[in-house]
Amino acid sequence: MRASGGAIGPLTETTVDSWDYTMDVLAKGVFLGIKHAARELIAQGEGGSIINTASIAGLSGDAGPMIYSAAKAAVISLSKSAAVELAPEKIRVNAICPGFIATPLAAVSRDRVAKTQENFAKSQPWPEYGDGEHIAGAALFLASEDSRFVTGEHIVVDGGLTAAGPELSRRFPKGSARDSRVVGVTKGSTGEAPDITRLDG
């Protein structure tokens, strides 16, 4: 499984540059999105809904690569804080926490998509793999008037994976970004090549 982008590998081998890259993309990017969206929504004066993408990795110390998890925890916390600050403007702020979602990014290659879907379906209690439509459904709810009293929340969309805890990493498919035999930074869907080094041993 390819990571969505960010530092992977052991804590003791992770560089500050890898930390900075991950936090810039996954946490600072969300901060800037909230900031500028809030400015526009306040200027319009009609309220609104800001929806951030976090991850189940932000809910546990054992559900994803360490710095990725820290960044996604920051997204959850930032969403809660922004929800409190922006509530007087009737701007709601929430986060979605996906579990294993079988997008093309999750597969190592196009010919591995079916195998990725199969592995993901076996990794949580719900007997089907997660796909983009499941995340879109949660986002549509949070964007709609049906959720007009929902703010400062994180909605988990993971087929029961976190409910089944503990030891989430034992459910990760082989080839997970938690693999301690490699270190470096993946670049997600940017089109940039990953900067990964295989560790000896």
- Which architecture name does CATH use? 3-Layer(aba) Sandwich
CATH superfamily placement: NAD(P)-binding Rossmann-like Domain
| Structural domain tally | 1
Question: Can you tell me the CATH class?
Answer: Alpha Beta
Computed over alpha carbons, the radius of gyration is: 17 Å
Question: What's the mean pLDDT score?
Answer: 86
Strands, count? 6
CATH topology: Rossmann fold
- Which of globular, elongated, flat, extended, rod-shaped describes the shape? globular
Overall helicity: 25-40%
The residue ranges in which pLDDT falls below 50 over 5 or more consecutive positions are none
Strand count, sense and barrel status of the largest sheet are: 3 strands, antiparallel
The end-to-end distance, rounded to whole angstroms, is 21 Å
- Main sheet strand line-up: 1-5-6
β-strand percent reads: 5-15%
* Tally of helical runs: 5
The secondary structure category is: alpha/beta
SSE topology string:
EHEHEHHEHEE
